[in-house]
């Protein structure tokens, strides 16, 4: 009834990881390596945004739950940032990602759940954190689920990294290469604009989104940039030989026009990156609306080895 599904089906020049659910059989190690990290200095503002309860009598079941946790890159950054006594949990729909997460954080429960069905008890979480996966699940059902599992005045935080390749000296020439193969980059609306629109459509669940952008430099390999550009859906549908021609052409172009340095046999480049953070607070339950949405609690399915 409320579902208004918003999903990026193709990408333009924003260099961001695909949500875990869209990765198919891609190895989790490649997924983890390709994503920009979350430097502690960049996400430091979240420390004052998230509320970690210190009174043991008021402690929720989990202080922080990373939804769509993937391999745990955001959890790793939050563990560096937040107090050592913070109780973490994760929700991840992909089995391969859950395995990778559990290998890195065996002490943290990782639940086989989805964004709109976390299997967490009602009012059991102090803070929910979600990364770029929000763009594949920004819908009313997701926000209702987050509202359900958060404690009163619980916080919802959203953070992602983006590299705008349009600001790089080689992107104009890359466009020419793509056009020479009759490939045009699709135009994608602003990710932050779409996120705010989703919250605007559900005004009774959370306070107005607050946001902050922190510029950083993302160091990556020429190969990673090339592979990213080849994730354009129209390129993936081309014959393998033509993909190889495009890959080689773009790699040579980047190496000739960008400041490339060599480290351990790898060709590295620095790209301008933004860490974008959003946060809001759970609003009190509308008793009239709550009466028409009775929730039956289901025990969480926690990964066990």
Automatic annotation (TrEMBL):
Domain Methyltransferase: 64-154
GO molecular function: S-adenosylmethionine-dependent methyltransferase activity
Source superkingdom: Eukaryota
Pfam families: Methyltransf_25 (PF13649)
Signal sequence residues: none
Keywords attached to this entry: Methyltransferase, Transferase
Keyword Methyltransferase: yes
Matching InterPro entries: Diverse_substrate_MTase, Methyltransf_25, SAM-dependent_MTases_sf
Protein name: Methyltransferase domain-containing protein
Origin organism lineage: Eukaryota, Sar, Stramenopiles, Oomycota, Saprolegniomycetes
């Amino acid at each position: 009834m409320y579902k208004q599904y918003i999903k990026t089906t193709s990408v333009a020049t924003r260099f961001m990881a695909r949500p875990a659910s869209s990765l198919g059989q891609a190895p989790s190690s490649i997924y983890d390596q390709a994503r920009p990290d979350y430097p502690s200095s960049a996400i430091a503002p979240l420390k004052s945004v998230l509320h970690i309860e210190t009174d043991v009598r008021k402690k929720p079941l989990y202080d922080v739950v990373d939804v769509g946790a993937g391999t745990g890159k955001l959890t790793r950054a939050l563990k560096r940032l937040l107090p050592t006594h913070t109780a973490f949990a994760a929700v991840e729909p992909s089995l391969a990602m859950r395995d990778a997460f559990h290998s890195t954080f065996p002490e943290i429960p990782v639940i086989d759940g989805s964004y709109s069905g976390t299997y967490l008890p009602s009012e059991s979480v102090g803070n929910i954190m979600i990364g770029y996966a929000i763009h594949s699940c920004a819908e009313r059902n997701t926000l209702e689920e987050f509202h359900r599992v958060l404690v009163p005045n619980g916080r919802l935080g959203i953070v992602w990294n983006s590299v705008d390749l349009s600001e790089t000296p080689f992107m104009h020439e890359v466009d020419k290469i793509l056009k020479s193969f009759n490939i045009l980059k699709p135009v994608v609306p602003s990710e932050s604009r779409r996120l705010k629109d989703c919250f605007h459509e559900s005004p009774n669940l959370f306070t107005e989104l607050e946001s902050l952008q922190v510029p950083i430099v993302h160091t990556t390999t020429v190969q990673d940039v090339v592979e990213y550009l080849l994730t354009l859906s129209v390129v993936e549908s081309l014959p393998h030989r033509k993909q190889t021609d495009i890959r080689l052409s773009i790699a040579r172009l980047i190496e000739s026009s960008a400041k490339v340095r060599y480290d351990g046999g790898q060709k590295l480049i620095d790209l301008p990156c933004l860490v974008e953070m959003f946060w809001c607070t759970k609003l009190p339950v509308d008793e009239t609306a709550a009466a028409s949405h009775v929730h039956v609690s289901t025990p969480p399915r926690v990964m066990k080895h």
